[in-house]
């Protein structure tokens, strides 16, 4: 990819902004730019400006852009068999299900169901929770304040952001949100709890890890009270934190996990992986999806997993994360308070509420990061990130910080 423009779509900025405002629903903020192509950790917009992308489509583009292995896999699958209904199966679908059971530790006794997004995976997980609640006569499902689980009506009810739910009135009832402390967990748990669903690191909340020991205690309490422990690994999963899944750092066994984002490396796919204890809750006819598990998505995801393994990208995520934490601290900027998170899911906490402005400055300089909230910059680069990209990131981010000093 060259630095000068080789844009095929010469589009006037004012014109596309107007077209966006006219054609698109108002749910999203105006786009930051119009992107055209990408390669590795870099993307280019329609004006030919290049950006080092440390957001990766929000932790989706695990192999970066246009990775040859990914391109080959999706092209081959498109040319062979892209979609079949769930009246049939394919080698790709079965292969991916078995691989997910293996890397999650759910093993032979676990089961998988596919969907097309994170929210859809969590809808399936919520069905497990509702089935268990209904069957046991328990009353409550627990989730965490500031947790994020998606934008469907079911997952919005799980999401711990009241402002997102309020415009819609009454959603699924009986979901209680707890603060993310061990004290709130102890106080909130009881025999009336059917399920607890949580993220190991709250990504949307500004990359906030659970307190030390939280997941282990949650496992104990869930077991003691006959509740399901469901871990939303949609942002933390598929190698991003330096393990296949975030819960694996704590050595617990969940009842179910959900995955999406990085799994397809850019092709839409989500999955619910149930462990032995929850594997038979969903019975015939209780869930389904037309596109879920089709060979285009599952074949591509299989190639993503194989490439993560072949190139040692989980170890890379762990090492690069550590390197980034040290190098960001090494900038010595008074604007940086701390770096939270693990592996390649990091939140740079700022000492002033200037994340939005800092993000805009970074974009101007050619760096894409995300303002998770007013005082946190979130970075989630592709898992293929190497020395050259880290050096470039530190240089650009240092310049951005200095512009606001
Ligand atoms: C992104 C995300 C979701 C929602 O996934 P979609 O694919 O946007 O539906 C759910 N949970 C977590 C933790 C996420 O990061």
From TrEMBL:
Gene: argD
Record GO biological process: L-arginine biosynthetic process
CDD domains in the record: OAT_like (cd00610)
Domain of life (superkingdom): Bacteria
Pathway it works in: Amino-acid biosynthesis
NCBIfam families, A to Z: argD, PRK01278.1, PRK03244.1
Higher taxonomy: Bacteria, Bacillati, Actinomycetota, Actinomycetes, Micrococcales
Listed cofactors: pyridoxal 5'-phosphate
InterPro entries found in the cross-reference section: AcOrn/SuccOrn_fam, Aminotrans_3, Aminotrans_3_PPA_site, Class-III_PLP-dep_AT, PyrdxlP-dep_Trfase, PyrdxlP-dep_Trfase_major, PyrdxlP-dep_Trfase_small
Protein name as it appears in the record: Acetylornithine aminotransferase
Gene Ontology molecular functions: identical protein binding; pyridoxal phosphate binding; transaminase activity
Pfam family, any one: Aminotran_3
UniProt keyword list: Amino-acid biosynthesis, Aminotransferase, Pyridoxal phosphate, Transferase
Source species: Arenivirga flava
Family: Belongs to the class-III pyridoxal-phosphate-dependent aminotransferase family.
């Amino acid at each position: 990819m060259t630095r000068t423009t080789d844009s095929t779509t010469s589009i006037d900025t004012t014109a596309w902004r107007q077209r966006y405002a006219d054609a698109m629903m108002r749910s999203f903020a105006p786009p930051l730019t119009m992107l055209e192509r990408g390669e590795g950790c870099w993307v280019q917009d329609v004006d030919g400006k290049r950006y080092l992308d440390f957001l990766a489509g929000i932790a989706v583009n695990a192999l970066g852009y246009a990775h040859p292995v990914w391109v080959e896999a999706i092209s081959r699958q498109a040319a062979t068999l892209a979609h079949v209904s769930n009246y049939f199966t394919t080698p790709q679908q079965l292969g991916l299900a078995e691989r997910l059971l293996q890397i999650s530790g759910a093993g032979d006794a676990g089961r998988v169901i596919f969907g097309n997004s994170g929210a859809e995976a969590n809808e399936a997980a919520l069905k497990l929770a509702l089935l268990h609640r209904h069957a046991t006569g328990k009353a409550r499902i627990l989730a965490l304040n500031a947790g994020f689980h998606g934008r469907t009506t079911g997952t919005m009810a799980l999401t711990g952001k009241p402002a997102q739910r309020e415009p819609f009135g009454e959603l699924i009832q009986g979901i209680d949100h707890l603060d993310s402390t061990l004290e709130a967990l102890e106080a909130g748990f009881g025999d009336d709890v059917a399920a607890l669903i949580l993220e190991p690191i709250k990504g949307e909340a500004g990359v906030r890890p659970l307190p030390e020991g939280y997941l282990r205690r949650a496992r104990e309490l869930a077991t003691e009270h006959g509740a399901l422990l469901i871990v939303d690994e949609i942002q933390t999963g598929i190698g991003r934190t330096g393990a296949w899944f975030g819960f694996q750092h704590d050595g617990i066994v969940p009842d179910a996990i959900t995955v999406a984002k990085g799994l397809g490396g850019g092709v839409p796919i989500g999955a619910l992986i149930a462990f032995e204890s929850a594997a038979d809750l969903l019975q015939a006819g209780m869930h389904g999806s037309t596109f879920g598990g089709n060979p285009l998505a599952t074949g591509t995801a299989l190639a993503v997993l194989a490439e993560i393994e072949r190139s040692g990208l989980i170890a890379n995520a762990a090492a690069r994360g550590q390197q980034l934490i040290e190098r960001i601290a090494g900038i010595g900027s008074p604007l940086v308070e701390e770096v939270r998170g693990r592996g390649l899911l990091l939140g740079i906490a700022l000492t002033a509420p200037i994340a939005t402005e800092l993000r805009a400055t970074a974009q101007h300089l050619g760096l894409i990061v995300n303002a998770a909230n007013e005082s946190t910059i979130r970075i989630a680069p592709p898992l293929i990130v190497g020395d050259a990209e880290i050096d470039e990131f530190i240089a650009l981010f240092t310049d951005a910080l200095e512009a606001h000093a």
